[in-house]
Each structure stands twice: as structure tokens, then as C-alpha cells.
Design brief:
Distance between the termini: 42 Å
Order of helices and strands: EHEHEHEHEHHEHEEHEEEEEHEEHHEEEH
Oligomer: single chain
Strand content: 25-35%
Number of strands: 18
Bound molecules: adenosine-5'-diphosphate, magnesium ion
Helix content: 25-40%
Number of helices: 12
Largest sheet: 9 strands, antiparallel
Shape: globular
Length: 387
């Protein structure tokens, strides 16, 4: 390997999961070298990167080492401590900035930012002590509701459904009384997301809107393009751009939306590429990770060119490894192999229930409708589970 020095166009990324792994591939393809910072020595991106700094996010000595290697740093998941980003920001360029990430990683800050920006959000309340629960009684009825920890939740973790004040109190104690957000449980007609990139000059690039279906709070299936009226698509795109602009955002960002009783709401912001954007790896000329590399390096995002206008993505969770009961057994993908079916496995050593192990993108061929591709995805799912 080359001598590590800044002239070798090193890019740094905090977090070494599958999003970091795809970022690393995109960066290397463009001639960059990548240093991954992740405390897990078996992290998918760490294994692939030119250098892996395997230390904790608050290890200042290790962060100094990162600063010595590269000038440009990004993140692959929102739970990187904001202080870490602020520390790096003193000496190197961090995109997106610590300020934007610190808002997106804290549901209380995120809700108040969205409200201030005039973005439609569902009814909610901050729950940070018992008094805030008592005060709820004076408000309009919030139940049934979802209690979410303000920080460190992902894939439905750090969330629980509550039906009344008693259940809320119990859940708050179970969450060790950390600051939380209580959200009214909305009747969802549909969920969708927008994945977009924004450059240092404020140029935008957005992918087609993505319809998302969740199982137990975890993304299960994405349909591209989302089956929603174009007027809602336009409105949502306008809102996502406003969010990015108000955050002074540089990089790739996803906004998750709900449609409930024909009303549009923003659910949350992800300050990074998004699981629902994985279709772009196989369906587009430039995928969301290419855009992350480009915007990090100060370039314009490339125009989105879709090779396959219709596609469906299926997540592969660890559950699949335990489909035959207690005993772990590798799924067999041989039976579904075909040129329009793209299988991605992240190389995680340990399958666990609910853990994202990989995904499959089913590309719609000419003359295939969205319904055809969804049916194909469902039949692929059945074949994998039964073999
Ligand atoms: P995560 O950070 O785990 O993605 P989210 O807040 O996006 O957390 O919640 C995960 C999923 O739970 C959502 O995609 C949606 O399906 C469901 N959900 C979350 N909040 C609400 C709500 N207020 N009303 C109805 N469903 C919700
Ligand atoms: Mg979410």
C-alpha cells in the first residue's frame, strides 16, 4: 500500500457499516483512498478500506490520527457523537457539518428545527421528566402514541407503543428516563422517502421518490418510483429542499415522509445515504454513494440517470438465517439468480434477528409494470424463505 499521506486523496468516513462499505467502493472506484473510523474490528467497511482506525469515537488521539491522514471527512450513520464531529471540524472539512448532524441525530432538536422551518410534522410532545407526562393530561388526547428516545434509536429500536398515561410512565422508566419524544400514532396511508444530494454551491440532485414498507419498524421493501400523485411528489421535493437549505446541508440526505388521511408529514431526516436509496446502486448510472463522494470532495452531484425506471428493493434481515428454527442456516440464493436480480451481502459475520445482512434489487425490465416487479419480488422472497 502507498505511504499514507494527504496527497493521496484520502477520504475519511466515520462508521463502518454497509453504508460505509458502499461509500468506500464508490470512493475507490473514483480513485480515492478511504480511511474508515469504526470501533468494530469486523466492520464491513473497515475490511474494505485502505486504512481502518479501529478506536472509539471519543478517542482524541485516534481522531488526531484521522486528521493527519485526510482533509475531508463524512459520516455513515447519525449516531456519531456530535462532539466528535465538532472536534474534527476544528482542523478538517466535515460534510455534512456537525450542526446539521446534531439536529438530525436528536429527535427533540429535529422536531423543533422542522417546526421552525414550517415543515408539516405530526403532533408530538417532549417527555423528559414525570412533570412533562403530567402536563400531557391538559393537552388534546395523544393516544395511541409512540414513545421514542431522542437519541441513538435506529431500525425501530428505542421506540415503544403506548396507549395511555400509565403505559407511558412505565415505558419512560424502561427507557431509563432519558429525554424522549412522544408522537401521536398516525394512521399511515403510505410511507415514502426522498434521497437527495446538495453541493457546496447549493446544487441539488434528487432521485425518484421511493415508496417504503416497514415490518416491525424496519424497512422491508422499497418501490421505485413511489405510487403517489405528482402534486404530492412536487410538494415533498420542495419540503426536502427547504430542509436541506435551512440546514446548510452539504452531502447526501434522506427525508422520510408519511401520508396519513391524505395529509403529508415529515417523519425524520437521515443525514447520510439511506437504505431506501440502495436501488440506485443497480438502477442508476450514479448511485447515492457516488453522490456522497462527489459532494464531500466539493464537486457537483452528477445528474441522476436512471437505467431502470422501475425497481423494487428487498432487505435481507438476519431472520432469514434462522428460518429453519433455532439453528443458523445460510440462505440459498442460487435459485433466484438472474441478470435482473442483484444480490448484495454485506459480509457481516453474525446474523441476528432484525440485523440488516444484505439486500436484493429487482430491476424492472422493459414493458414490466410496477405491479409485475412487486409480484416478482414477493415470489423471490417466498423462494428464499422456503429453501
Ligand atoms: P427509525 O429511526 O428507527 O427509522 P422512525 O421514527 O422512522 O425510526 O420509525 C420507524 C417506523 O415506525 C416508521 O418508518 C413507521 O413505519 C413507524 N412509525 C414511526 N413513527 C410513527 C408515527 N408517529 N405514526 C405511525 N407510525 C410511525
Ligand atoms: Mg426512520
Amino acid at each position: 500500500m502507498q505511504e499514507l499521506n494527504k496527497s493521496f486523496k484520502f477520504l475519511g468516513i466515520l462508521g463502518g457499516g454497509q453504508l460505509g462499505q458502499f461509500f468506500t467502493m464508490a470512493a475507490q472506484k473514483m480513485g480515492h483512498a478511504v480511511v474508515v473510523f469504526d470501533p468494530d474490528k469486523k466492520s464491513p467497511a473497515g475490511k474494505l478500506a485502505d486504512k481502518h482506525i479501529c478506536r472509539s469515537y471519543d478517542d482524541l488521539e485516534a481522531l488526531d490520527e484521522l486528521k493527519k491522514i485526510c482533509n475531508l471527512v463524512t459520516t455513515e450513520f447519525e449516531n456519531i457523537p456530535a462532539e466528535t464531529l465538532r472536534y474534527l471540524e476544528k482542523d478538517v472539512i466535515v460534510r455534512p457539518k456537525a450542526k446539521a448532524v446534531s439536529i438530525a441525530q436528536n429527535r427533540i432538536k429535529e422536531k423543533s428545527f422542522l417546526k421552525q422551518s414550517g415543515i408539516p410534522i405530526g403532533r408530538h410532545a417532549v417527555i423528559d421528566n414525570f412533570k412533562s407526562i403530567k402536563l400531557l393530561n391538559d393537552e388534546v388526547d395523544m393516544f395511541p402514541a409512540i414513545l421514542k428516545t431522542a437519541q441513538f434509536g435506529y431500525d425501530g429500536k428505542g421506540q415503544t407503543h403506548v396507549n395511555d398515561v400509565k403505559e407511558l410512565e412505565r415505558a419512560f422508566v424502561r427507557f431509563k428516563k432519558v429525554p424522549c419524544i412522544l408522537e401521536e400514532k398516525l394512521d399511515l396511508d403510505l410511507e415514502f422517502s426522498i434521497v437527495m444530494a446538495r453541493s457546496i454551491n447549493g446544487d441539488y440532485l434528487e432521485y425518484p421518490l421511493i415508496e417504503n414498507q416497514h415490518e416491525a419498524g424496519i424497512l422491508d421493501l422499497s418501490i421505485i418510483p413511489a405510487r403517489i400523485p405528482s402534486i404530492i411528489k412536487k410538494e415533498a421535493t420542495k419540503l426536502a429542499k427547504k430542509i436541506a437549505s435551512d440546514l446548510n446541508y452539504i452531502g447526501v440526505m434522506a427525508v422520510e415522509f408519511f401520508i396519513s388521511n391524505n395529509h403529508l408529514y415529515v417523519n425524520e431526516i437521515a443525514p447520510r445515504p439511506h437504505n431506501s436509496g440502495h436501488f440506485s446502486i443497480d438502477a442508476c448510472v450514479y448511485n447515492q454513494f457516488d453522490q456522497q463522494v462527489l459532494t464531500l470532495a466539493g464537486s457537483r452531484p452528477k445528474d441522476e440517470e436512471t437505467k431502470f425506471p422501475v425497481s423494487v428493493m428487498l432487505n435481507l434481515l438476519g431472520d432469514l438465517w434462522f428460518r429453519k428454527g433455532e439453528k443458523k442456516s445460510e440462505p440459498n440464493f442460487e435459485m433466484i439468480k438472474s441478470s435482473e436480480i442483484k444480490i448484495h451481502l454485506y459480509g457481516k459475520y453474525e446474523p441476528r434477528i432484525g440485523r440488516k445482512m444484505g439486500h436484493i434489487t429487482i430491476l424492472g425490465l422493459e414493458k414490466q409494470s410496477i405491479d409485475d416487479v412487486i409480484r416478482k419480488a414477493e415470489s423471490i422472497r417466498k423462494t428464499i424463505w422456503e429453501n
